[in-house]
Design brief:
mainly alpha; about 425 residues; two-stranded antiparallel sheet
Length: about 425
């Protein structure tokens, strides 16, 4: 009901609800005043207008789109297009290839650690495998202290729960990039494409075995199946890891040859910070490849000096353009690479394996940071294009809600260890 205010000598009084007025039984009213107030209130009563419609969401608007004056529920079923930065195919391929190449060099540390820890035989409860020791990895959890005995509890002291000792393998994500690099055939490079395809056939299954084995032994799953799954994973790793050195060697010449064909200027229009970052990344790469096995002799001190000079130039460019995405994305990765390269050069020949690993891993990080900053720059400029297959988005009234069955998820068969 609508509330109509009463006016007394130009002043608004308390609104009165129509058509009935609540009267407090305990309050005494004067007949004359009550009649005057009631008549004035009823005179202003009228039917209330209908309430305004609720705000319509985008999904509902699409679902109720009109075609010929009638609702079109099929509008909610139409896929929506997505927009992605307009990155040149050459830039994308170089990013994936370089990330895969430098990131996968960590296989040397993993192979050395695992094969050494299992030299005496397959893993057992007292002889757990090692997946390598990485300077940038997360250290295993320290053993927990014994819990204090509860007051009034005459039983034995409670044993602490065994801590999780799952080892972190930081470079695994870059092994996954090799599958993407293999699928990028533009611009065509027959030598590189064949090498990436061959290496991915080796790296793709190995990556899954590494992830599964680190979780299996780290979370003590062998206590539940008496090492049945562990024997299978050990067999696969023992077969694949000795081949790591030879497989990595097949990438050196094709990847370096592809890098030598890189255009002098970026296909995308970069800002000053982006240009400086591109130059610094090129200087860093020239230094990083000198730490590869069987690399030709090079003046690492001179290459390090050139990389440090490029780092300073990049820092100056970022200081002049604080809005550039390259400052936040690339600066920490470039600094990490310079620090790792300085440590590796100071270590002398032969370079320790962990120092070499840090040079390779930070180089892969630097390549990835450059690409991430490029994507942010293109989005800021609105330089986008339709990307991939449009997403299928349904309005709420057309979505099926299916209750999950946890039992079905637990009942999924595990590949046989035989």
């Amino acid at each position: 009901m609508k509330l109509e205010p009463l006016s007394v000598r130009g002043r608004s009084a308390t609104p009165i609800r129509c058509p009935q007025r609540h009267v407090d039984p305990g309050r005494r009213w004067r007949p004359g005043v009550f009649v005057a107030v009631a008549v004035g209130a009823l005179a202003g009563c009228q039917e209330d207008p209908p309430p305004p419609p609720p705000p319509t969401s985008l999904a509902t608007a699409q679902a109720t789109a009109t075609v010929g004056g009638k609702g079109d529920p099929a509008a909610a079923m139409r896929p929506r297009s997505t927009q992605v930065p307009r990155v040149d195919p050459d830039t994308m391929k170089r990013y994936r290839v370089e990330s895969c190449f430098f990131g996968s060099q960590g296989l040397r540390l993993l192979a050395a650690g695992y094969l050494e820890s299992t030299k005496a035989g397959p893993p057992t409860a007292d002889r757990q495998p090692s997946f390598g020791t990485y300077p940038n990895g997360v250290k295993p959890a320290k053993p927990a202290e014994k819990e204090k005995q509860a007051p009034g509890d005459e039983a034995e002291e409670r044993r602490p729960r065994p801590p999780s000792v799952t080892q972190t393998v930081p470079f695994v994500r870059y092994l996954r990039y090799c599958a993407i690099a293999k699928s990028l055939t533009e611009p065509a490079d027959p030598t590189l494409d064949a090498a990436m395809k061959s290496f991915n056939e080796y790296a793709a299954p190995l990556t899954q075995f590494i992830i599964q084995a680190s979780r299996y032994f780290g979370t003590r799953q062998w206590e539940k199946d008496d090492f049945e799954r562990g024997k299978f994973l050990h067999e696969k790793l023992s077969e694949a890891l000795p081949k790591a050195e030879a497989q990595l060697a097949t990438l050196v010449a094709p990847v370096n040859g592809f890098a030598a064909k890189a255009p002098a200027e970026s296909p995308e229009k970069l800002d000053d910070a982006g240009l400086a970052a591109r130059e610094a990344t090129a200087k860093a790469r020239a230094l990083a490849v000198t730490f590869l096995p069987d690399a030709e002799g090079a003046d690492r001190a001179a290459l390090l000096e050139a990389a440090v000079a490029a780092q300073k130039t990049f820092a100056d460019a970022v200081a002049k353009d604080e809005k550039s995405p390259y400052g936040k994305a690339v600066t920490p990765k470039l600094n990490a690479f310079i620090d790792a390269a300085k440590a590796a050069v100071e270590a002398g020949e032969p370079t320790p394996a962990d120092e070499t690993y840090m040079v390779m891993f930070t180089m892969a990080d630097l390549v990835e940071a450059n690409h991430r900053a490029l994507n942010q720059l293109l989005r800021m400029r609105g330089d986008l294009k339709p990307g991939g297959k449009p997403m299928q988005v349904l309005s709420p009234q057309f979505r099926q809600r299916i209750r999950a069955d946890p039992g079905a998820l637990r009942a999924r068969p595990i590949p046989s260890a035989k």
